[in-house]
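Reminder to self: tokens first, then the designed residues, so the page reads top to bottom the way the pipeline ran.
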């Protein structure tokens, strides 16, 4: 259902921890959980402190892109600690053809973006009825 698309994510996370959050040009990674509940695929992204109006969700073919932005603090004060990344967050997921992306639903509550994607009807298991009975065949004699 879901395929990981960013092979450099763990390397970027390590680089951000060692060198600091602002040293890479790649957007910050947003933590994610994904699971299946019955006929629905659920994805949650942790985005504390991100205003809902900065969320942008796009679907093109089977690629889901989520973008968000945590504003940078500005003002006349001295920063004492800065461990939470700010700026642009972006994540792309390649979703399988067995999901109905036309019916994707999104909600945002308490800093958690939740996406619910139903499994497509064509991908759901179905039972095939087997008919039984006599089979009528036309038999034709071939004469030479």
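Designed residues (144 positions):
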């Amino acid at each position: 259902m879901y395929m990981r698309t960013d092979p450099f994510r763990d390397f970027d996370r390590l680089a951000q921890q060692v060198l600091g959050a602002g040293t890479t040009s790649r957007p910050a990674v947003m933590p994610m959980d994904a699971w299946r509940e019955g006929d629905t695929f659920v994805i949650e992204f942790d985005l504390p402190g991100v205003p809902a109006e900065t969320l942008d969700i796009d679907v093109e073919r089977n690629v889901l892109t989520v973008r968000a932005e945590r504003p940078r603090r500005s003002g006349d004060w001295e920063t004492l600690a800065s461990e939470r990344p700010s700026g642009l967050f972006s994540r792309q997921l390649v979703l399988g053809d067995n999901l109905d992306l036309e019916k994707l639903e999104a909600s945002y509550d308490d800093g958690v973006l939740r996406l619910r994607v139903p499994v497509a009807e064509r991908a759901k298991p179905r039972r095939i009825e087997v008919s039984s009975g006599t089979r009528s065949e036309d038999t034709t004699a071939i004469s030479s």
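The longest strand covers residues 87-95.
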